Amino acid sequence: MTGRTAVRQDGLQDRVRAAVFEVRDPEIDVTLVDLGVLQEIEVTEEAVRVVLAPTRTACPGRTAMADGIRRAVAAVLPDAEVVIDWRPGGWRADLVSEQGLDTLRGCGYGVTGHGVVLGIRRCPYCGSGRVESTGRFGGSVCKTPFHCRACGSAFDELGTADDIG
Ligand SMILES: [Zn+2]
User: Fold this and answer.
1) 133 - beta bridge partners?
2) How far is the CA of 130 from the centre of ligand 1 (A)?
């Protein structure tokens, strides 16, 4: 292998990483990196391995996330094998980046952990603690719906089953 080839391969790996880092959550316009779901990536010429920690083990977005990763890799390395290791229980609300939090709040989501201050859930719109759960599940099993009695807003909270009491 010549030095020129090695440089080109390094560039490919960067492009694979860049493409995978752009993969977004199937339901929210935020990247899996910013959500704290995409936790590891290893790129070789033959295979790309990623570790994904779903927000809940039964999250129905898993198939869509995996498809998104495969498409992103295939766009750069069409022949590479894609290995996706799921790490159930590996996701934590504090892994969400500041960028991810901004996007989530902009979409009206609270985030378990971030949204709970001294045990009181806060409305992402007005900051009021007068919020109540309106049901077990929101739009998907990853979310719990809440209603703010101060400003009347409805919002979903992302979290794991353990976090939602
Ligand atoms: Zn409110």
Assistant:
1) 146
2) 8
Q: Structure tokens of 30?
A: 């935020």
Question: How far does residue 99's CA lie from ligand 1's centre (Å)?
Answer: 22
- For residue 32, the model assigns a pLDDT of 94
- Between the CA of 146 and the centroid of ligand 1 the distance, in Å, is 10
The predicted-structure confidence for 35-57, as pLDDT tens digits, reads as follows 899 999 999 889 999 999 987 65
Q: Which domains does the chain have, with CATH numbers?
A: 3-86 (3.30.300.130), 100-158 (no CATH)
Pairing of strands 143-148, 154-158: antiparallel
Cα–ligand 1 centroid distance for 153 (angstroms): 5
Q: pLDDT by residue (tens digit) across 138-160? A: 555 577 788 999 999 988 887 65
Distance (angstroms) between ligand 1 centre and the Cα of 106 equals 13
**Of 147, 135, 141, 134, whose CA–CA distance to 161 is shortest?**
141
